[in-house]
Design a protein that fits this description.
20 helices
């Protein structure tokens, strides 16, 4: 059996190589799971792990949510709601809408959040002449503004619990990064939104426009409201889908078309592959092995604080992944007695978020790219520079403070 640490790094390298060779993300991630499993776990345990992952509540819940979200978006498209929504937003300010819609939806932590905002923005992005990659970047970036500091996000709450500090302390420590993300996203997207790309009209908001906007966007608003009120997304999405079908008097051919889109086998397999990869990392103790190896070779605290959360964020693609796996190992660096080491937390959490946002197994990135029919490699060209700037700022702050 190989040490889990190099096995994890080998799996990440394998996924990136396969994506570069244009293999479907689901297959690439599945192969990544096999690499770790075959190198670390007993051979007889792999079938059990695959079956347990398939039948787990978390996997089935995720499949139900994403399938419902995709079906909902397709049905809104078929019934003309998305075209109407894009036209209305263009009248009240297309540039503002492009940034505001994903940011508002991002206030509510939910699976497929970027897919929900992408549904609202797709036609508007086309009208403004944005490429699929530019539309993906704007939607993806502004959807994740609040994940750095909003106390509604499970990763923020879990961080305060792991470190045994007040939630407000975690929030205030990380709040500057949210401001930085907004600034960098605005600057990056400003270059894309040239004046000649849209027909901006200075039309005042009227009751007619407000009504049209509400009529076109009510399914999206309802999903956000239900989740915000505490209803589980696995109920909120199907419920909204059913209400939309009734309100629009959807016929069977339209339903069949929407269901075919929502139950795309490639997307469902992608979701399963991501959950299997997460389970493989947890089952192999790869994160703990990587941390131990870092300590054994005497890496400085700055490197450990940045590298471990980054790799866990990159490997799992979820906030709870890098927080739940890496932060417990980093507690000695993140606390000074009973006090929080704010600069260390800022570096560790920011590094985890940068890894997460670059992760090829991050659902929002993969689904947004698929939805806009964008090239993942070209999307990386847009998200990499501002993310490197964010990481550089976090490293610089820690270096100066330390």
């Amino acid at each position: 059996m190989l040490n889990p640490s190099p096995a994890l790094l080998a799996s990440i390298a394998g996924i990136l190589i396969l994506l570069r060779l244009k293999l479907h993300p689901g297959l690439a991630i599945f192969v990544g799971s096999l690499i770790i499993s075959l190198l670390v776990l007993p051979p007889h345990s792999l079938p059990d792990l695959m079956l347990q992952t398939l039948l787990s509540y978390q996997t089935l819940k995720l499949l139900a949510i994403i399938a419902s979200a995709l079906t909902l978006s397709r049905l809104m498209d078929v019934k003309g709601l998305l075209t109407s929504l894009a036209a209305t937003m263009e009248r009240i300010g297309p540039r503002l809408a492009l940034h505001l819609v994903p940011a508002v939806i991002g206030l509510v932590p939910m699976p497929a959040g970027a897919l929900v905002s992408a549904t609202a923005l797709r036609d508007l992005a086309k009208r403004m002449g944005l490429t699929p990659e530019q539309a993906t970047f704007i939607n993806y970036w502004f959807r994740h503004l609040w994940e750095y500091s909003l106390p509604l996000y499970p990763a923020i709450i879990t961080t305060s619990v792991i470190l045994s500090v007040q939630l407000s302390s975690v929030m205030l420590t990380l709040l500057p990064m949210t401001a930085l993300v907004i600034a960098l996203g605005t600057v990056s997207s400003y270059r894309m939104l040239k004046p000649n790309k849209s027909r901006e009209t200075k039309e005042r908001m009227s009751k007619n426009i407000a009504y049209t906007l509400l009529r076109a966007s009510w399914p999206i608003l309802l999903v956000v409201a239900l989740v915000l009120l505490g209803l589980d997304a696995v109920i909120a999405f199907p419920l909204t889908l059913a209400l939309l079908a009734l309100q629009q008097r959807v016929k069977w051919p339209e339903s069949k078309m929407a269901l075919k889109y929502g139950l795309d086998p490639k997307i469902l397999f992608l979701l399963y592959a991501i959950m299997l990869y997460k389970a493989t990392i947890e089952g192999s103790d790869a994160a703990y092995a990587l941390f131990s190896d870092m300590q054994n070779i005497g890496l400085p605290a700055l490197t450990v604080l940045a590298a471990l959360p980054f790799l866990m964020g990159f490997a799992t693609g979820i906030g709870m992944g890098f927080v739940g796996i890496s932060l417990p190992l980093l507690v000695p660096f993140l606390t000074l007695g009973s006090e929080l080491n704010s600069y260390a937390l800022l570096l560790a959490y920011t590094s985890g978020m940068v890894g997460l946002l670059l992760s090829p197994v991050h659902l929002c990135l993969i689904l947004s790219t698929e939805y806009f029919k964008a090239s993942l490699a070209r999307v990386y060209r847009y998200i990499l520079p501002p993310l490197l700037a964010i990481e550089a700022v976090a490293v610089l702050i820690y270096y100066i403070a330390a």
